[in-house]
Amino acid sequence: MQIYVVKKNDTLDKIAAAFMVSAEDIAYDNQIAAPYPLAVGQALLIPTEDEIAPKRKVRVNGYAYPYIRTDVLTETLPYLTTLSVFSYGFTANGNLIPPKTDDSRMIQEAWTQGAAPILVLTPFDQTGMFNNYLISEITHNMTAQQTLIDEMLLLMEEKGFAGIDLDFEYILPEDRIAYAEFVANVRAQAAPKGYPVSVALAPKTSANQRGLLYEGKDYKLLGAAADSVLLMTYEWGYTYGPPMAVAPINKVREVVEYAVTEIPTEKIDLGIPNYGYDWTLPFVQGVSKARTISNVEAVQLAIENDAVIQFDQTAMSPYFRYEKDGVQHEVWFEDVRSMKEKFRLITDYGLRGMGYWQIMRLFRANWLLLADTFDIHRL
Fold first, then answer.
1. The pTM is what?
2. Contact at 8 Å (CB) between 109 and 76?
3. For residue 166, how far is the Cα from the chain centroid?
4. CA distances from 107 to 65, 247, 269 (A)
5. Residue 1: how many CA atoms within 13 Å on its side-chain side?
6. Residues 2-46, CATH architecture
7. Which fold has domain 58-276+336-376?
8. Which of 11, 19, 73, 231 has the maximum number of C-beta atoms within 10 A of its C-beta?
9. Are 264 and 353 in contact (CB under 8 A)?
10. pLDDT tens digits, residue range 199-225?
11. CA–CA distance from 302 to each of 273, 322, 325, 327, 343 (Å)?
12. What are φ and ψ of residue 99, in 5° steps?
C-alpha cells in the first residue's frame, strides 16, 4: 500500500490512472462515496503490487460497546487478536454489573471470526460512572474482592470470555499498592483457567507524575502484576480541552520511552485512538465542548466546507479549520499518515502490539494499512 496526499485539481480518476489502479478500489478502501469528492490535503491509501517484505507479528485489540453495528463488527474482527467488551461494573460488595446491552452476539461473532473476546472490568457504579470509592472497597475488602473474582470467573466460563482487562481510572494515591495487589490476585486466580489479565495504564512520563489519573498507577508494580498492559496514549486533545491532536506522536513517544524503563516491551500494547474531535472557536475553558467524530466524518466535513487539510509535523496528525453558520471550527483527527507513525513507534520500540479505543466507527483504510504493515496474531 502507498499513501498519496490529494493536491488541488486532483480527481479520483486522475489519481487512479497515475497509480494504474482502479478508482473503485481506491474509493472502497478509503470509504469515499459517489460522486467521489476529495479534499485537498486528504491522505489516501492506494493499493499497489509492490514486493511484500517480511512482517513483524503483533497483537491487536479493539474495544467496543455491545451495541456496535453488526456490519462494523464483522468487517473489523478479521484484523483483531482480541475484542474487548466494554464494560462490566461492580458493586461495593463485589457483585458484577453487566452491560445494559446484551453482549452475547459480540462474544459469539468474535469466536466465529477467530478473535478472542475479553471481559473488561471497570469501577463503574449503578450510574455507569467511574467511582474511586469502589476501587478502595474492592482493593481493601478481601471478602468483596473474592466475591468479584468468583463471579467474574464463573461468568467468563458461562459466556465464553477468553481473558480479563482491568480498566480502573482515578485510583487514589493511597490505593496504589493495593490496586497492584488486586491485579496480581486476579491474575493468580485466572491463570489456572487459562485467562490472561491485562491492565490499562494512564499515559505517564515519570514515576512521580502528579494528578489523579496518574498517581494511583504504578507502572513497575502493574507491569509485574499483569500479563500485559495497554498504554492509554490518547486524549491529549479531548472533549473539554483546547483544540489539539488526540494522540500527538511526540507526546505518545514520551510515554513509551518511560514505559519501557519500567515494563518489559513484550508486555506493552500501544493505545491508538479511532476518532477525532470538532471544536468550536474561540475555545473557552469550562464552557467549550468538542464533538466526537469519526475519521471518515472528519474528511467529509472538510469536503463539505471546502477546507484544506493540513498535517502538523510535530504531532504528526491532520487538522483543518472551517466556518459554518458564522461559527469557526477546528478539527483534529487520524488518517493513514498518523496511523503509520504510530505503527512505526510499535516497531521501533519492539512493543507487543496495540489496542484501539474504540472500533465503533469503521476506518477501513486503517485496517488495510495495519494488515499491510504487520502480521496480525490470530487464534
1. 0.97
2. no
3. 15
4. 12, 29, 22
5. 22
6. Roll (3.10)
7. TIM Barrel (3.20.20)
8. 231
9. no
10. 999 999 999 999 999 999 999 999 999
11. 20, 7, 15, 15, 25
12. -60, 155
Other Cβ atoms within 10 Å of 43 Cβ, number: 22
Q: Between 176-190 and 132-140, two packed helices, what is the crossing angle to 10 degrees?
A: 60
Cell of 30: 478509503
Mean pLDDT of 132-149: 97
Q: Could you tell me which of 16, 13, 59, 52 has the C-alpha nearest to residue 266? A: 59
Domain spans in the chain, listed from the N-terminal domain onward: 2-46, 58-276+336-376, 280-329
Q: What is the dihedral of CA 186, 59, 349, 225, to 10 degrees?
A: 10
Query: Which residue blocks in 97-226 are alpha helix, DSSP H?
Result: 104-112, 132-140, 142-159, 176-190, 219-225
286 φ, ψ to 5°?
A: 85, -10
Tens digit of pLDDT for each residue in 263-320?
999 999 999 999 999 999 999 999 999 999 999 999 999 999 999 999 999 999 999 9
How do 82-90 and 374-376 pair as beta strands?
unpaired
Beta bridge partners of 332: 277, 319
Known active-site residue 169:
yes
pLDDT in tens, 26-63: 999 999 999 999 999 999 999 987 767 789 999 999 99
Cα–Cα distance between 120 and 161 in angstroms, integer?
A: 10
Q: Where are the beta strands (DSSP E) in 237-326?
A: 268-273, 276-281, 291-293, 310-312, 317-324
DSSP designation for 293:
E
| Total Cβ atoms within 10 A of residue 173 | 12
Q: Which CATH number fits domain 280-329: 3.10.20.600, 3.40.630.30, 3.10.50.10, 2.60.40.10?
A: 3.10.50.10
Question: How far, CA to CA in Å, does 160 sit from each of 149, 191, 230?
Answer: 16, 16, 22
Please identify which of the residues 109, 169, 235, 254 carries the catalytic annotation.
169
Largest CA distance in the chain: 68
Q: Please report, to the nearest 10 degrees, the dihedral formed by the alpha carbons of residues 103, 105, 108, 109 taken in order.
A: -120
